[in-house]
Amino acid sequence: MMDCEIAEDGEVYIEDADIIAETTLDDEDLPDCSDEDDEYDEQADFDEDLGDSIYKFTGHTSGVFALACSPTNPLLVATGGGDDRGFLWKIGQGDWGAELGGHKDTVTSIAFSSDGQFVASGGFDSVVNVWDASGNFKCKLEVPVPDEKMKKKAPPTGGFEWVSWHPTDHVVLAGSNDFSFFGKTNDFSAGMWGLNTGAFTELSGHRGSITCGDFTPDGKTICTGSSDLTLRIWSSETGDPIYVVGGHPYHNKGLTCLAITSDSRCALTGSEDGSVKIVNIKTGKVVGTLSPGHSKKVKCIGLSRSPSFFPCAATGGEDEKLVIWDLERSSPRSICNLESEVTCLTWIGTSKYVAAGCADGDIVIWDGLSGDNVKTFRGHSECIESLSVSCNQDFLVSGSASASGDATDSHGTARVFEIAGFR
C-alpha cells in the first residue's frame, strides 16, 4: 500500500520509495492551460449540436419555412418545408410524429385553427391541405374549376404564400404570391373556404402578389396587403370589397407584412420602402405613420398583447434593426441594433419581451420596456424563417433555412428553446 504525507497546507506528497519510474515530458506534451481553456470549461455543458436549444426536430430534409404551435396543446408543433412536406410533432417526444403529405411543392405556410382542432398547410402547388390535430387528413382546398376545358387551358399559376384561420369558425383564408385563377390576367386573388359548408369565396382585385393578410380579431373583416402598393379591406361574410387604401400618404412601394389591433379597429402595415403606416379599418383612412423607422424593407411586424403594457408594436427590417414603437406617440421607444437583418419576430405571450429571428441564425430576446438585449439563443447556422411560442409560454420554437439557402440542398431544422423565465 502506498504511503503518503499530508502537509499542513493540504498538499499530498508521495514518498520516494513509492516512485516506480520517471518520464520527462516536453512542453508540447502538456495541455495548454490558457484563459481560453478556462472559458471553455465554464461552458462544458454547451452541446454543439443542440446549441442553446433543448430539442431539435430533424424530420425535414430541407429548409423549414413555416411553423406554428398549437393554441391548446403546449407540446404540439406543426412545421412545413422545402421538401414538400409538413409534420406534426411533439416537443421532447421523438417517438411521436405525423407526416402531412400531399403537397407537390414547397410548403410555405402552416396554421392551427383557433380551437386547435385542425391545421392547414399551404404550398406553392396552389393547394391548401387540412388535417386534424392527430395528423389525419381531412380535405384538400383548391380553387373551383369553371370547367375541364378552362382547367387545361389556364390552370392556376404560382402558389399560396400564407394561410390564416377565422378567429371563431372553421374558415380558411389563403393569399397568393404570383398567382392568378384560371386565366385571369393582372388579377391576383385570395381564397376563402368554409370547412363545414364547402363554400369557396374569391377575393379578387389586387394587381400584384398578395404578400400578407388576416381576419380581424372580431372575425367580421379581412385585410390583405399586396405588392401593388395597396391594402384592401373586405367583408368576411360576403367577400365584397369595402375599402382600397393606396396613394399618398400611403406606402410608395409594395406591402410586406401587417398586424391588426385586438379591437379590430386598426391595421399596421410594413413596406419595401421601410415605412410603417396605421390604417383605420372602419374608415379606410391612413391615420398615422411610425417614424423615424427603417431605412430598408420592413420584413415583419407584431403587436404587444400585454394588458398592462403601453400600446406598442415591434418591427424588424433588412437594415438590421428591431424597433419597439410607442403607438400612442407614433414614435420609437427603442431602436435595437443587431448584426444581421431581422427576418421574423413574435411577442412572448402577454409579456414585455419580444423575440427576433435573424438572418445569421441567432434569436434575440429584447425587453420591450427598456430596449435591452436580455438573451441571445444560438443553435441555428442559417436564416431563421419562422418563430412561434407554445400556448403555455414555456417554449419558443424556430425554423431555419437549409444550409445553402437552396430549399433542396441540405437540412433545415426546427429547434425548441426554453423561455419560461420570460413570461
UniProtKB/TrEMBL annotation:
<feature type="repeat" description="WD">
    <location>
        <begin position="203"/>
        <end position="244"/>
    </location>
</feature>
<protein>
    <recommendedName>
        <fullName>Angio-associated migratory cell protein</fullName>
    </recommendedName>
</protein>
<dbReference type="Pfam" id="PF00400">
    <property type="entry name" value="WD40"/>
</dbReference>
<feature type="repeat" description="WD">
    <location>
        <begin position="335"/>
        <end position="376"/>
    </location>
</feature>
<dbReference type="InterPro" id="IPR051179">
    <property type="entry name" value="WD_repeat_multifunction"/>
</dbReference>
<dbReference type="InterPro" id="IPR020472">
    <property type="entry name" value="WD40_PAC1"/>
</dbReference>
<dbReference type="InterPro" id="IPR001680">
    <property type="entry name" value="WD40_rpt"/>
</dbReference>
<dbReference type="InterPro" id="IPR011047">
    <property type="entry name" value="Quinoprotein_ADH-like_sf"/>
</dbReference>
<dbReference type="InterPro" id="IPR019775">
    <property type="entry name" value="WD40_repeat_CS"/>
</dbReference>
<keyword id="KW-0963">Cytoplasm</keyword>
<keyword id="KW-0677">Repeat</keyword>
<feature type="repeat" description="WD">
    <location>
        <begin position="100"/>
        <end position="132"/>
    </location>
</feature>
<feature type="repeat" description="WD">
    <location>
        <begin position="248"/>
        <end position="289"/>
    </location>
</feature>
<feature type="repeat" description="WD">
    <location>
        <begin position="57"/>
        <end position="91"/>
    </location>
</feature>
<dbReference type="GO" id="GO:0005737">
    <property type="term" value="C:cytoplasm"/>
</dbReference>
<dbReference type="InterPro" id="IPR015943">
    <property type="entry name" value="WD40/YVTN_repeat-like_dom_sf"/>
</dbReference>
<keyword id="KW-0853">WD repeat</keyword>
